[in-house]
Amino acid sequence: MQKKHLALALLVTLVWGLNFPITKLGLRGIDPFVLTGIRFALAALPLVFFIRRPAVHFGYVAAYGVIFGLGMWGVINYGIQVGVSPGIASLIIQLSVFFTLGWGVVLFNENLRDAQLVGAGLTLLGLAGIVVTQDGSHAVLGVMLIVLSAFAWSVGNVIIKQSGVKEIFAFMVWASLFPPIPLFLMAWWMHGSAAFQSLPANLDVMAIGSILFQVYLATHFAYWGWNSLLKAYPVSTVAPLSLLIPVFGIASSMLIIGERISTLELISIAIILLGLAVGLYRRPVTLTAKDQAQPGNAQ
């Protein structure tokens, strides 16, 4: 991966890591499905009136929007509200890496290198270490919801890759049209009109700041960057980079909302970083004298 693309990946994962505790601030007074619906409504409007529709089958746009908005972020936010801490949620969502690697093999005939398999094993060990350190305060339902959202993220990655979309930002804007109505209907189904009646009183400066961060940084910028990487590289190369998200997510949760982590959790995070380094490592190619003599190998 080129250095500029690696820098973009680091910035995207930083924004996404910060997004977890910042979203938690917005969830203090707003229903999770309403908050997510507002996020995607603002991500689509008014830009959709000024940006041309991406030149791909519209089914890809609609499918990605629903899976991305409702299946991933609506479910994540609900999981956080029912008890999963933002830092731990940012870690569990990384199960999407393993789902995505599997999709790459099954659908795109990608081959996994031995280093990727070893790296995946180490990161799975690190994730397991985080899970077993939990003291039971996180509801099983919440954990399962985050796992479901991880699967949804992997499906979204496949849709992006399969669509072959080139207008990444336009794709994100138009896809954002589809989640709000299902999200608002979900809020109504679960909590009735109370989910909407309490909204005006809870839209304070903190909640508005949380929404703006989610719309313009976590959605517009970060998904443009992430999907651009998916367009340029195999999913098996891009997916492991998301393992940086929980590092930033847990660290920012400690700073912003005072989340505490144990020594064993810190060790598990270090194992995840090691797994990421192993998985991304590629041995430099050494050209033989015969290869160097071939046309096209001149520097």
Keywords:
299 residues, 16 helices, single chain, mainly alpha, 0% strand, disordered C terminus
Q: How large is the radius of gyration?
A: 20 Å
Give the overall pLDDT as a whole number: 83
Total domains? 1
Number of helical stretches of at least 4 residues: 16
Q: Low-confidence segments, ≥5 residues, pLDDT <50? A: 284-299
Which class do the helix and strand fractions yield? mainly alpha
Shape: globular
Topology order in helix (H) and strand (E) letters: HHHHHHHHHHHHHHHH
How far is the N terminus from the C terminus? 20 Å
Structure summary, number of beta strands: 0
Q: What fraction of residues sit in β-strands?
A: under 5%
Q: Tell me about the largest β-sheet.
A: none
User: Roughly what percent helix?
Assistant: over 70%
Summary of the model, kept short:
By secondary structure, the chain is an all-alpha fold. It has helices spanning 3-26, 32-44, 58-81, 86-92, 95-108, 114-132, 140-163, 168-175, 180-191, 194-197, 199-202, 205-232, 235-238, 245-256, 263-280, 289-293.
3D architecture notes:
This protein is mainly α and 299 residues long. The protein has one domain (3-281). Helices cover 74% and strands 0% of the residues. It has 16 helices and no strands. It has helices at residues 3-26, 32-44, 58-81, 86-92, 95-108, 114-132, 140-163, 168-175, 180-191, 194-197, 199-202, 205-232, 235-238, 245-256, 263-280, 289-293. Helix 4 runs antiparallel to helix 14 (245-256). The longest helix has 28 residues, at 205-232. It starts with a helix and ends in a 6-residue tail after the last helix. The model is unreliable at 284-299 (pLDDT under 50).
